Structures are given as structure tokens and as C-alpha cells.
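Page 47, continued from p. 46.
Same chain as before, 134 aa.
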Amino acid sequence: MKRSLQDTNALSYCLKGEPKVVARAGEYLAAFGKLDFSIIIYYEVRRGLVYAGATRKLAQFEALANISHLWELDRRSAQEAADICADLWRRGEPLDDADILIAGISRANGLVLITDNARHFGRIPGLQVESWLK
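Result:
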């Protein structure tokens, strides 16, 4: 198992108790001691839970965030994201900024991106993508 960055949908499945994702998250925790996700993903998940008024899920998420490693957007990650964005624009295949920043953090740090959106992120060269639902 490689060090990974959990995407928004992977964390959402985990919070919903999806058995396959929860099992893989347990394996990951046993191997690395913490889950890994980015500050961008933290924002996306928190935004959705606050908007939905899901106070119990929000408390669960905050407890999970407190024992996880949150990857920041640093200069190297921003450079990767800018390169990814420019490449996708040239090919006429733009992605939204949040996903480009997530991909930049993942690629800059050599992390596998755990997502159920492989087709979406699979267009990014050099980005390792995996689903925990399969």
C-alpha cells in the first residue's frame, strides 16, 4: 500500500460507512497511522456538511481531521497545479480549480489519489489514481 491522498468522495464514502472504503481506510490507518487529505478537500467536505446542516457528520469529520494529516498547498504543489492546468487548457480539457489544486498536491508529493472519479482525474499525466470502492 502506497501513501495516498483521499479525495472528497473517498472521505464522504468513509463518513457514510461504505464497507469497502471503511475497510481500506482501516488498512491504511494500520499502515500509516493517519489518513491523508488536503486542506482543499477539508474545505470541500466541511462546506458540504455545513450547508446540509449535518452537525453529527460534521463532528465526526472534525474528529477525523484532528487525527489525520492535512496536506497544505505549498509552492511546489502550486507549481504542479499550474503545470497541470496549463496542460489541460492546451488540450481543451479544463478541470475546476479545486480539483487541479488537489491533483497538484498529490503529484508534487508522490501520493496516490484515492477517488471514485478516476476518469476525471485520469486525464492528468503522472497522477496515480485508485478507487477504494472496487
